[in-house]
Amino acid sequence: ETAPFQHFTFWVREEPKLIKFAALDPSLGKKSRRNDPSAIVIGGYSPATGVLDVLAASIRRRLPDVICEDAIALQREFGCVLWFVESVQFQEFLRTEIMKRAAKAGVALSALPVTPIVDKRLRIERLQPPIAGGLIRFQAHQTALIDQLEQWPDGEHDDGPDALEMLWTGALTYAS
Known about the structure:
Elements: E1 9-10, E2 19-25, E3 38-46, E4 51-60, H1 64-78, E5 82-86, H2 90-104, E6 111-114, H3 120-125, H4 128-132, E7 136-138, H5 143-151, H6 159-174
Parallel strand pairs: 1-7, 2-5, 4-7, 5-6
Antiparallel strand pairs: 2-3, 3-4
Helix pairs in contact: 1-2
């Protein structure tokens, strides 16, 4: 009953004229004892309604090469205008490597570094009002992301909510 994320709004049909963004939490070894998954979350933001639809949520354990391959494949599929990539230590190298590999593959992928300066708990919990209010909407099959949100802050992993927070903040900042 005390979990901050209990009410989710779901969408079925993609709205037209969405501005697409992506967020990546690579989770490269900072908590290797827990073997954290990486999270890539794609969203479509509607400036007309202020709603962000989560279009894809890929949360799984993967090596850096696979993170690069998956990011490029998702960029091909969704054509995001901007990626937000957590860039602490080695993650910054990965961000630039993804852009280099994408360019070699003929895929335009612009990625901004995100260096968290606000406490993670506060960053993730500030998603509660837009999620509860239906401003961030999900698809029923995005179970890994929804499970991590429902289990916050006591769950084993938080990579999905962390990426979702980067996506929401980035969309609000850059969609205009």
